[in-house]
C-alpha cells in the first residue's frame, strides 16, 4: 500500500493526467440498418480475465462467447515482455472470436411453478491451469464452472496401400491374394510360401506393393472443447445477481436479493450462508442486496450494496454469519430533498473494487460514486451521469426504465471510471485529484460524435450548485440530455468492462460488442 500511496503522491504533484482521446477499435455482431435484434442475442454479461488476453460475453440465450487477443501473439510474446525489451507496440488491442458454448438452458421449477430463463447474469474468470481456461457463469438460479481447453483432433493420414494402385481395403485384399491357376487347392488353401504371413520371407507380392506404409495418426487440427466441471445449484431461493471470485483461488460467493453464500470451487453440493438479511416477517423487508464483490487482495473481506444506497464491508474473520458489518458507506440525503423516487434512484446497481482495494466504485441510477474504504463519512467523488433525467422521473417510472441496472468499471491504474447510459452512450470520468475529464462516447464506429464539453464531476462543496444548474438545463429541454442530444430509452448500454492493464474498453450495445482504445 505504501508503494501505491507514493505513486499517487507523485501523480498528484504532477497534476491530473490529460483527458484520453478514444478511438474505435473493432466491433463484433454489428447490426445492419433496420435489422431486428433477436432477444436471445442481446448481451447480458461482459468480463475481461486478469491478464486482459481473453474476454467473455454471455447473452440472454444462455450462450457464453469467448474472444482472445491477437495483436500480442503476432509479435511473438506478451505485451509486458515487449515493453521490457523497449519494443514499441504500435498496434491497438485486437481480439478475435475464439469459441462459444451453451452454458444454460431454460428450466422449469415444478415445486414453485416457476420458469427459470437461460439468461447469463454474470461471468467471472478463474485462474488458468495447464493452458486451460476456467470460468464461472450463472443464470437466476444455477452457477456452473466451465473448463475450456484445446484438444488435438486425431486423424489417420496414410494407409498401407498406394492409392494409385488400389482403393480401399477391398482393393488391398484383391491385389494381395490374386493367384494363378495352380496356386489354389480344392479347399481354398494357399501354397505359395512368399504370400504366407507366417513365412520368414518378408518379400511382397510381385508387381503389387513395392513398400509397406503403416497408418500414420496425425493431429494437425486443434478443437476447443468446453466442459462443465461442476454445477452449483439449489442454494438460492431468489434470483442470483452477483458472483465473485476470492483472491485465494479456492472460494467464491454468490448473492441473491436476501442472502450471500460462500462456495468452495471443488465442492458443488454444499455452501455456507454468510449474509442473510431476510426478516422473520417479509412485511418488514425494507432493503435487498443488489451486488456483492470480494476484495481483490484480502481473502477475508467483501463488500455488498443494497437497494437503499448503502455499501457494507464485512470481515469473514469476525463471525461465521456476517449479519453485522465492519463498515458501512452511505451518503446522507439533503434535508427537504426526499420524494417518491428517492429510494428508487438511490438503489445501487453495481459495485467494483479498485485494483489496489483502496477504493470502491458504486453506480446508482443518477450517479457514479467513488468511496475510500478508510473513510466512511461520504464518497470522495461523485460523478453526475443522469442528472438531466431528473425532470423525467415520472415517465421513467411508468416505462420501468428507472429500474435499469447499469454497470460500472475502473481503469487498471484507478485514475478513471466509466459507466453506461441511454442512446447507447457511455461516459468516462477522470477521478485523479484535480481532474475535470468527463467524456461521452457512443457505441458506434464514430464514438466521439457526442462529446460532453462541460465537466460532470461534482465535489462535495459544489454539489448543490452544479446539481441545480444541470437540473435547470434538463428542465428547459426535456427531450434532450445535458449536451443537447436527444435520448432514446429503448437503446441502453448496461454492460461494459475496462481492460485490466490498458486504456481499452469493451461495451455491449444490444447484440453488438464494441471495443475502443486510447
UniProtKB/TrEMBL annotation:
Region listing for Disordered, in residue ranges: 1-23, 442-464
Entry coiled-coil feature ranges: none
Organism of origin: Olea europaea subsp. europaea
Protein family according to the UniProt entry: Belongs to the phosphatase 2A regulatory subunit B family.
Alphabetic keyword roster: Repeat, WD repeat
Protein name: Serine/threonine-protein phosphatase 2A 55 kDa regulatory subunit B
GO cellular component: protein phosphatase type 2A complex
Pfam families: WD40
Assembly mode: PP2A consists of a common heteromeric enzyme, composed of a catalytic subunit (subunits C), a constant regulatory subunit (subunit A), and a variety of regulatory subunits such as subunits B (the R2/B/PR55/B55, R3/B''/PR72/PR130/PR59 and R5/B'/B56 families). Interacts with SIC/RON3.
InterPro entries reported for this sequence: PP2A_PR55, PP2A_PR55_CS, WD40/YVTN_repeat-like_dom_sf, WD40_repeat_dom_sf, WD40_rpt
An example molecular function term from Gene Ontology annotations: protein phosphatase regulator activity
Function comment: The B regulatory subunit may modulate substrate selectivity and catalytic activity, and may also direct the localization of the catalytic enzyme to a particular subcellular compartment.
Amino acid at each position: 500500500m505504501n508503494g501505491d500511496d507514493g505513486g499517487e503522491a507523485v501523480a498528484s504533484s504532477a497534476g491530473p493526467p490529460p483527458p484520453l482521446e478514444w478511438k474505435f477499435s473493432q466491433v463484433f455482431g454489428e447490426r445492419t440498418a433496420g435489422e431486428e435484434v433477436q432477444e436471445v442475442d442481446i448481451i447480458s454479461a461482459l468480463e475481461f480475465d486478469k491478464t486482459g488476453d481473453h474476454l467473455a460475453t454471455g447473452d440472454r440465450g444462455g450462450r457464453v462467447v469467448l474472444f482472445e487477443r491477437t495483436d500480442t501473439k503476432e509479435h511473438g510474446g506478451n505485451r509486458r515482455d515487449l515493453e521490457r525489451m523497449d519494443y514499441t507496440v504500435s498496434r491497438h488491442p485486437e481480439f478475435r472470436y475464439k469459441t462459444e458454448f451453451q452454458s444454460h438452458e431454460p428450466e422449469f421449477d415444478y415445486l414453485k411453478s416457476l420458469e427459470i430463463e437461460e439468461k447469463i447474469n454474470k461471468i467471472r474468470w478463474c485462474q488458468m491451469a495447464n493452458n486451460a481456461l476456467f470460468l464461472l457463469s450463472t443464470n437466476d438460479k444455477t452457477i456452473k464452472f466451465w473448463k475450456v481447453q484445446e484438444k488435438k483432433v486425431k486423424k489417420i493420414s496414410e494407409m498401407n496401400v498406394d492409392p494409385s494402385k488400389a482403393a480401399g481395403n477391398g482393393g488391398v485384399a484383391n491385389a494381395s491374394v490374386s493367384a494363378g491357376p495352380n496356386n489354389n487347392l480344392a479347399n481354398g488353401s494357399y501354397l505359395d510360401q512368399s504370400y504366407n504371413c507366417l513365412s520368414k520371407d518378408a518379400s511382397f507380392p510381385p508387381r503389387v506393393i513395392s513398400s509397406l506404409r503403416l497408418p500414420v495418426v496425425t493431429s494437425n487440427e486443434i478443437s476447443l472443447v468446453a466442459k462443465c466441471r461442476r454445477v452449483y445449484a439449489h442454494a438460492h431461493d431468489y434470483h442470483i445477481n452477483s458472483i465473485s471470485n476470492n483472491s485465494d483461488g479456492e472460494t467464491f460467493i454468490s448473492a441473491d436479493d436476501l442472502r450471500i453464500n460462500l462456495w468452495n470451487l471443488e465442492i458443488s453440493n454444499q455452501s455456507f450462508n454468510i449474509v442473510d438479511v431476510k426478516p422473520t416477517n417479509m412485511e418488514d423487508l425494507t432493503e435487498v442486496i443488489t451486488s456483492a464483490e470480494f476484495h481483490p487482495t484480502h481473502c477475508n473481506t467483501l463488500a455488498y450494496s443494497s437497494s437503499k444506497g448503502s455499501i457494507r464491508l464485512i470481515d469473514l474473520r469476525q463471525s461465521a454469519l456476517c449479519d453485522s458489518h465492519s463498515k458501512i458507506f452511505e451518503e446522507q440525503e439533503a434535508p427537504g430533498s426526499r420524494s417518491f423516487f428517492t429510494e428508487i434512484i438511490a438503489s445501487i446497481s453495481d459495485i467494483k473494487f479498485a485494483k489496489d482495494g483502496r477504493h470502491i466504485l458504486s453506480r446508482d441510477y443518477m450517479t457514479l460514486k467513488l468511496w475510500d474504504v478508510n473513510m466512511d463519512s461520504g464518497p470522495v467523488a461523485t460523478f453526475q451521469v443522469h442528472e438531466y433525467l431528473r425532470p423525467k422521473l415520472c415517465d421513467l417510472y411508468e416505462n420501468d426504465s428507472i429500474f435499469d441496472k447499469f454497470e460500472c468499471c475502473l481503469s487498471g491504474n484507478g485514475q478513471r471510471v466509466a459507466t453506461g447510459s441511454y442512446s447507447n452512450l457511455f461516459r468516462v470520468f477522470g477521478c485523479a485529484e484535480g481532474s475535470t475529464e468527463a467524456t461521452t462516447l457512443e457505441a458506434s464506429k464514430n464514438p466521439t460524435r457526442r462529446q460532453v464539453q462541460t465537466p460532470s464531476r461534482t465535489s462535495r462543496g459544489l454539489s448543490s450548485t452544479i446539481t441545480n444548474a444541470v437540473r435547470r438545463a434538463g428542465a428547459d429541454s426535456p427531450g434532450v440530455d445535458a449536451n443537447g442530444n436527444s435520448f432514446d430509452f429503448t437503446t441502453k448500454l448496461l454492460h461494459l468492462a475496462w481492460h485490466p492493464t490498458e486504456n481499452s474498453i469493451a461495451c455491449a450495445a444490444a447484440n453488438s460488442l464494441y471495443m475502443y482504445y486510447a
